[in-house]
Design goal:
Length: 349
């Protein structure tokens, strides 16, 4: 759960068809009893999980089927690296707690480390740490100097940036060389999964409450994960949303998201949902029709009126029949619901 949270906080990608990323997420928690392993790590190529290690199994295992192209020697090496990182991150969470003067409770120290290969051949590196869900420090990949985000991180960044340690330079060599080489190899293994394109489906709806109308744009069934969704007024002005956009996975390997905005409708305004995705040759623009909801309401009302009219005709017919047969309307038999079939004896429409 925490690894997923960190991925959402730190994982950023644009709507690009040919860029790829290799990232590893590390999480250490303080103490037992949380239901989580005290340490875990997961590896991702783009949105595909490729590897997993935790302090319970103490073994790095492939997750994506195509990662079995790496032999046993590779996975044995990754297991040894996993054990080394476990020791480091267990130490980091204890150290961070001491700097924040914390002696108990559940705390987490997390890291994200990896590289990106752009569609133009450019490369980028990432190295970011967080504590208790907030940014702690990160590596500036222009100067290759570590930047403290919290005051408590200054001790670490001063030591890592010192001339005799130069952790940033060590990581620069890895991120620009070894990481990119691994990423290219993994792309070759999983190209069919990584580069599949599934077009998004789009549905727009609106609900009016008083003077405010809330518009929803539901986008679903798309792959890969990166997508750009926004509401537009009159085809040119973006309508900002107060809600955070969440991209959620489907069991079938595709994704879904929803963007909602609140607007005050004016007769001269139109609203449309704009969707850009790497599976599309051109972005989609889906116009919201305010009459659709109105039509559905009219249809429902019309259906109710029709049913009532049929019932009224039936009742009148029964009354006329009873009168002709000599019975008064008060003697009409009304069937009682059968309680044995589970129905209620209260009135129901």
């Amino acid at each position: 759960m925490m690894s997923s949270l960190f991925l959402l906080i730190l994982g950023v990608s644009g709507v690009c068809s040919d860029s790829h990323t290799l990232r590893y997420y590390y999480t250490a928690v303080s103490g037992k009893g949380s239901g989580l392993p005290e340490y875990s790590s997961v590896g991702y190529v783009d949105d595909q999980q490729i590897a997993h290690y935790n302090s319970d199994s103490r073994v790095t295992r492939p997750v994506a089927q195509w990662m079995n192209n790496e032999g046993s020697e590779y996975w044995e090496g990754e297991t040894q690296k996993g054990k080394g990182r476990e020791a480091v991150f267990r130490h980091n969470v204890r150290t961070a707690m001491s700097r924040f003067n914390q002696t108990g409770g559940l705390h987490s120290y997390q890291g994200m480390y990896g590289c990106e290969l752009g569609d133009d051949g450019s490369t980028t590196g990432y190295d970011q740490d967080g504590y208790d869900g907030r940014d702690f420090l990160h590596l500036d990949t222009k100067s290759w100097i570590y930047i403290p985000i919290m005051h408590e991180a200054q001790i670490s960044t001063q030591r890592w940036n010192s001339p005799d340690v130069r952790v940033g330079e060590i990581h620069r060599i890895y991120l620009q060389n070894t990481c990119i080489e691994s990423l290219k190899r993994f792309i070759t293994y999983g190209r069919e999964d990584l580069e599949k394109r599934v077009r998004p489906q789009v549905k727009v709806t609106g609900h009016r409450s008083g003077e405010v109308t809330k518009l929803h744009c539901q986008v679903y069934g798309f792959h890969p994960r990166a997508v750009d969704v926004k509401w537009m007024r009159n085809g040119r002005d973006e309508v900002p949303s107060d809600e955070a956009k969440k991209i959620l996975p489907h069991p079938d390997g595709t994704y879904q998201t929803r963007v909602s905005v609140e607007v005050f409708l004016r007769d001269e305004d139109t609203y449309s949902c704009y969707v850009d995705h790497s599976s599309l040759e051109e972005p989609l623009t889906v116009l919201w029709d305010p009459n659709e909801n109105r039509t559905s309401h009219i249809g429902i009302i019309g259906g109710v009126v029709a049913v009532l009219l049929v019932l009224a005709i039936a009742v009148i017919g029964i009354i006329l029949y009873r009168r002709r047969s000599g019975k008064s309307p008060g003697n009409v038999d009304i069937p009682t619901p059968n309680k044995e079939d589970g129905s209620s004896d209260s009135s129901a429409i």
